[in-house]
Amino acid sequence: MELSGKAILLTGVTEYLGKRFTTKLLEDTTAHLYLFGRAKKGVPFKARSELADLPHKARLTFVEGDLQDCSPLAAIAKNVDEIWHFAAITSFSERFRAKIMDANLYGTVRLIEAAKDFHT
């Protein structure tokens, strides 16, 4: 799969799997990456420590938002060629069931709905 020169939207890039894929894409391709994520504890997404060591920062565009509301993606919809979705809550605790369902299932549905406006 040729990814060089493409524009790829990635979610879940502050966690293990998403960050590994992001780093690999930056090292092995010339793709421009749009990273979608949320602020945490008052720290803007772009400034989160989990992203500090990513290489090739010139090929990154940070889009702050949350899978609760994918409307910030409208601004980049015409630029994105592919979406790679890694965002998830990995807890299996029953007490977090509603939060897990909202993020993992309904968050994915909201991302798919937003993607309908992306160019193909």
What coarse outline follows from CA principal-axis ratios? globular
Q: Decide which structural class fits the backbone.
A: alpha/beta
What is the fold named in CATH at topology level? Rossmann fold
Q: Give start-end ranges of low-pLDDT stretches.
A: none
Largest sheet: 4 strands, parallel
Q: Based on the structure given, which CATH architecture is correct? A: 3-Layer(aba) Sandwich
**How much strand content do the residues show?**
15-25%
Q: Give the assembly state of these chains.
A: single chain
How many helix segments?
A: 2
Spell the H/E element sequence.
Answer: EHEEEH
Radius of gyration from the alpha-carbon trace, in angstroms: 14 Å
Q: How many distinct folded domains?
A: 1
Could you state the CATH homologous superfamily? Answer: NAD(P)-binding Rossmann-like Domain
Major β-sheet strand ordering: 3-2-1-4
Q: What level of helicity do the residues show? A: 25-40%
Q: What is the number of strand segments?
A: 4
Mean pLDDT across all residues, rounded? Answer: 94
Question: At the first level of CATH, what is the class?
Answer: Alpha Beta
Cα end-to-end separation: 17 Å
Could you characterize the architecture of this molecule?
The chain is of the alpha/beta class and 120 residues long. The chain has a single domain, classed as 3-Layer(aba) Sandwich (Rossmann fold). The chain is built from two helices and four strands. It has helices spanning 16-28, 97-115, and strands spanning 7-11, 32-37, 60-64, 82-85. It has a four-stranded parallel β-sheet with strand order 3-2-1-4, covered by helices on one side. Strand 1, helix 1 and strand 2 (32-37) form a beta-alpha-beta unit. The longest helix has 19 residues, at 97-115.
